[in-house]
Design a protein that fits this description.
Elements lengths: L8 H13 L3 H14 L4 H14 L2 H14 L4 H13 L3 H14 L7 H15 L2 H14 L4 H11 L12
Helix pairs in contact: 1-2, 2-3, 3-4, 3-5, 4-5, 5-6, 5-7, 6-7, 7-8, 7-9
C-alpha cells in the first residue's frame, strides 16, 4: 500500500499500526514520522507519533515533537499532557507547570483525565523536591482510584529519576 500511495499519510500510518501489532515499534516510529511529514493535520497520527517518540527520542527531540503537536492542537488535552511530560523530562519545570495548568483547565469537567493530570502534577512535585505536595497528591490520587495509584506513582518517580532535586528517600 505504501508503494502504491507514497505521497499519502494513511498507508504509512496503517503500516505503522501493523508494525506496532508485531512489536516492531522502532520501525513503526519511522512510518509515523513519514506519515506526519506528509500530513501534519491529523490528530490521531500525532497521538501515535508522540507516544512512539517518547520511546525513541532523547529529551530535546521528544520535547520538540510534543511542542509541535501542542502548537497544532492547542485545545487537545492529550497533546497538552504529552507536552507537559516532555517538558518535565527536559527539566523545564516552570514551563511544565504553565502547560499543566492550562491542561487542568481544559480537563476540569472531564473525569477521565483527572488521574492523568494528577499524575503529571505528582511528577512536577517530585521534580521540585516538594515532599509535602507529593504526600498530598499521593492521597488525592488514591482517593480517585486506589487501583491506579501505582500507575502514576511509579511513572512519576521514573520521569524525574535523573533530577538532582529528588530526595534519595523517594527512590
Amino acid at each position: 500500500m505504501v508503494q502504491d500511495y507514497p505521497k499519502e499519510a494513511k498507508p504509512y500510518a496503517l503500516y505503522g499500526d501493523v508494525l506496532i501489532a508485531f512489536g516492531k515499534k522502532g520501525l513503526a516510529y519511522q512510518q509515523y514520522q513519514k506519515a506526519v511529514a506528509l500530513n501534519n493535520s491529523v490528530k490521531p497520527l500525532w497521538a501515535n507519533y508522540i507516544e512512539l517518540a517518547e520511546l525513541f527520542e532523547d529529551g530535546p527531540e521528544n520535547e520538540l515533537i510534543a511542542e509541535q503537536a501542542y502548537d497544532l492542537f492547542p485545545n487537545d488535552i492529550t497533546m497538552a499532557m504529552a507536552y507537559t511530560k516532555a517538558l518535565i523530562k527536559s527539566g523545564k519545570i516552570n514551563e511544565a507547570k504553565s502547560v499543566l495548568l492550562q491542561t487542568q483547565m481544559m480537563a476540569s469537567n472531564r473525569k477521565e483525565y483527572l488521574e492523568s493530570t494528577k499524575g503529571l502534577e505528582l511528577a512536577l512535585a517530585f521534580a521540585e523536591g516538594n515532599s509535602q505536595q507529593v504526600d498530598q497528591l499521593k492521597s488525592s490520587i488514591k482517593s480517585i482510584n486506589p487501583k491506579s495509584f501505582l500507575a502514576y506513582y511509579i511513572p512519576a518517580t521514573l520521569l524525574v529519576s535523573n533530577q538532582k532535586t529528588m530526595p534519595k528517600s523517594w527512590t
